[in-house]
Design goal:
Layout lengths: L7 E3 L10 E2 L9 E7 L2 E7 L5 H21 L7 H7 L7 E2 L2 H16 L9 H13 L5 H9 L6 E4 L4 E4 L12 H15 L5 E5 L2 E4 L9 E4 L10 E4 L2 E7 L4 E4 L2 E7 L6 E3 L1 E8 L2 H14 L1 H7 L7 E9 L4 E6 L6
Antiparallel strand pairs: 1-3, 2-10, 3-4, 4-8, 5-7, 6-7, 8-9, 9-12, 10-11, 12-16, 13-14, 14-15, 16-17, 17-18
Helix pairs in contact: 1-6, 4-5, 6-7
Length: 338
């Protein structure tokens, strides 16, 4: 017998917080929401269906799948597959990969090559330095940043898809899938719901939205892009796609007048300076999650040449230019593939 994880049931749909918001309407108030704390974030699921034992079972299975996948991808879990892979760097031997980890690492490496290293899952040592820095409210020592950079670099992660294995070529490497894993996990949760007949579903994984079929009698799920009040940012009706936003509005370190984002530049080892956020609409959560991060690292002057190399639907880049009087907002609208 399967032991289903406990999920919180809320009979009235709530507004979503975070950088991308879901807008409820009067018609939406009959929908049901489930939520659970996973991956260090609140994961919420909204289903357009009457409550039933079948729905509860499907939701439990979806959250159970998320828990299983988290034990593959989480560098916070010492027993996770990604943690075992990181520890294998001391030997330099080929490490056998599960199908799920192979898929995520292969996509990550492909994106790393296309972006010139702006997306890099090998920066785990740097990530840990900056986690401590934000907690202690002081910058990491330059020497420690340089040491972490020597243990980073996507070219030091070798993937062999023919035998589903990976090898880390430098001792002490640590992998960090924080910029892609939650999107992938949310994709799989939606897949479980669709498999069980509940395709009218929306999943909010810490602000990343994975959308299934639209609610009954609606063209799509109403999504506020950007999560800020601005006439430049639209409200869209979307379905069967994913929306992810990356920015420094909530997680950052500010010292001596300099603002450092939680998102790191893999080349410099520093948090991105300045204020900006990027929202990506793509075919799935894995792509949207990763692309939002890499676009922010590249900056608005490079994204137009980079994005055509990838699969995406639209991008919204908001650049906050601080002055003594106000914050100006610049938006690059809907750069679409042909």
């Amino acid at each position: 017998m399967i032991s289903y994880p406990k999920v919180r049931f809320i009979p009235i749909l709530l507004f979503f917080g975070g950088l991308v918001n879901f807008s409820a309407t009067k018609k939406a108030m009959a929908k049901v929401e489930f939520s659970q704390r996973l991956m260090g974030i609140n994961v919420r699921m909204v289903v357009d269906a009457p409550i039933s034992p079948e729905l509860r079972r499907s939701v439990s299975l979806a959250f159970e799948e998320a828990i299983r996948l988290n034990m593959i991808f989480s560098d916070w879990e010492g027993g996770s597959e990604i943690s075992h892979l990181s520890r294998s760097s001391q030997y330099g031997n080929a490490f056998p990969l599960s199908n799920e980890l192979l898929e995520v690492l292969s996509y990550s490496q492909n994106l790393a090559h296309k972006s010139g290293g702006a997306f890099d899952v090998t920066i785990g040592s740097l990530s840990r330095l900056w986690r401590i820095a934000r907690h202690q409210k002081r910058l990491p020592e330059k020497q420690k940043i340089q040491q972490a950079l020597k243990r980073s670099g996507y070219e030091k992660l070798l993937i062999n898809e023919s035998n589903s294995s990976a090898r880390l070529t430098t001792e002490g490497m640590v992998l960090d899938l924080g910029g892609i894993a939650k999107g992938y996990i949310a994709d799989q949760m939606l897949g479980v719901m669709k498999k069980n007949g509940f395709s009218r579903c929306l999943i909010d994984a810490g602000g990343d939205l994975i959308l299934g079929d639209p609610p009954a009698s609606n063209k799509g799920w109403r999504i506020d892009i950007g999560g800020i009040s601005s006439s430049l940012l639209p409200t869209l009706e979307l379905s069967n796609c994913a929306v992810a936003t990356s920015g420094d509005l909530e997680q950052y370190l500010e010292l001596d007048g300099q603002r450092y984002s939680h998102l790191l530049n893999p080349q410099t080892g520093l948090g991105i300076a300045g204020r900006a956020q990027v929202t990506i609409i793509a075919e799935n959560g894995m792509s949207a999650d990763a692309l939002a991060s890499v676009c922010l690292v590249l900056g608005k002057n490079k994204v137009e040449s980079f994005l055509p190399k990838t699969k995406y639907f639209s991008m919204y880049y908001v650049d906050y230019v601080e002055t003594s009087l106000k914050t100006e907002i610049f938006v690059l609208h809907a750069l679409k593939n042909d």
